[in-house]
Specification:
single chain; 1 helix; mainly alpha
Length: 86
């Protein structure tokens, strides 16, 4: 609700000039908020497009990693094997 301790925001003692300034301030804030929403919408759309375009790469990468992992079980690579306990 409205605070009566601050005369600037109180509707009782506001003049027409203060009301016009307050209306202008609210309208400016609404415009800024709408612009910010549009910017966020564009960023989300770009992020979604990047995710969709990266799917073939990530699926190929996962398939290659799986293939190399299964191949490495058949042929152990000594430098990557665990060290024996002394």
């Amino acid at each position: 609700m409205f605070s009566l301790s601050k005369p600037h925001f109180s509707l009782i003692c506001c003049g027409t000039r203060e009301l016009r300034e307050r209306i202008q301030t609210v309208q400016t804030t609404q415009k800024i908020t709408e612009a910010m929403k549009l910017v966020v919408a564009v960023r989300v759309r770009h992020a979604q497009e990047a995710t969709v375009s990266g799917r073939p790469f990530s699926s190929n990468l996962a398939a290659n990693a799986q293939r190399h992992h299964s191949a490495s079980k058949m042929m152990p690579y000594p430098p990557l094997s665990p060290m024996p306990n002394p």
